[in-house]
Amino acid sequence: MEMVGSGEEITGEELLRRYAAGERNFPLIRIEDMECVLEGADLRGINLMGSHLHHAPWWSIDLSGACLLATDFAGTWMNGTDLSDADLTGACLRGTNLTNANLSNCILKGANLREAILWNANLRGAVLDGAILANAKFTGAKYFTINQYMTGILFWNTTMPDGTVIEGPTYIN
């Protein structure tokens, strides 16, 4: 399989232009442009596997059904972003702001959510097996509870939806 866009750095505007032209595969790209304007963009089903999208504003974007395996969103603002049905296996969401994000039915297996902010996020049906939730803030998050189906999750100073804190380290196996 050809790795379209492999390793190239592009602007947010170029990503939007190429997506609008029908391109969907952007693995391993880099967008580190704080000035890029992606707010409200429709990027459903896009493939950004392994991409570095540091610190770019991704507010209210539709990334539903996207392939985001091992994508690095460290420090990104994703307030109100729709990540429903997206695959974020192994993604780095460290320090990412996911306030009011829709994470329903997304796969977060092995994802690094250390220091992530998930205030009022919708986590209905999200798969978090193997996720790192150290210092994550789930205040007001919907459908986030510890249950018998969770495996391999690390809680450490994790703020739960009701405001309680799992001081930890606590590992659910």
Automatic annotation (TrEMBL):
One family name in Pfam for this protein: Pentapeptide
Cited SUPFAM superfamilies: Pentapeptide repeat-like
PANTHER family: BTB_POZ DOMAIN-CONTAINING PROTEIN KCTD9 (PTHR14136)
The protein's name: Pentapeptide repeat-containing protein
